[in-house]
Amino acid sequence: AFFASKVEHESRHCNGKGFQRPGSSAFDRVYIANQNCGHAYPTFLAVLWCAGLLCRPAPAAFAGLMYLFVRQKYFVGYLGERTQSTPGYLFGKRIILFLFLMSVAGILNYYLVFFFGSDFEMYIKAITSMISPLLLIP
After folding, report:
1. Any idea what the CATH number is for the domain that residue 68 is in?
2. Who contacts 3 (Cβ-Cβ below 8 Å, separation ≥6)?
C-alpha cells in the first residue's frame, strides 16, 4: 500500500496524463521501484511458504518480516540515488537465499525420513534457530 501510494503521489505531482511521462525522473524512479518490488513478491511468497511449511515456521516468519523491512529500505533508497538501494537489494537477496536453503533442508529431511528412516529435524531446527538472528547483520 505504501509503494502504491507513493506511485500515485508522484503521478499526481507530475504534469501529464497516463504513465508515459518523459523527463520525469522522480516518477520513473518511484514507478520502477514499485515494479521491482512487485516482481520479487511472488518469489518471496513461494520460498516463505515452503520454508515455513517444510522446515520451521518461526525462523521463516522472522526472515519474512526482515524481508519486508528490507524491501521498504530498498524502495526508499531507490527514491534517492540508485546506489542507496544497493544495500537493501543485497540484504534482500541474502534473506531469499536463507529461505530457499530452509526449504531445501526441509525437503531433504523429508526424503531422508521417507527412504532411510533418518530424521534430522532436530538438527535443522537448531541450525535455523542459530542462523536466523544472523540475518540482522547488514
Report:
1. 1.20.120.550
2. 33, 34, 37, 38, 75
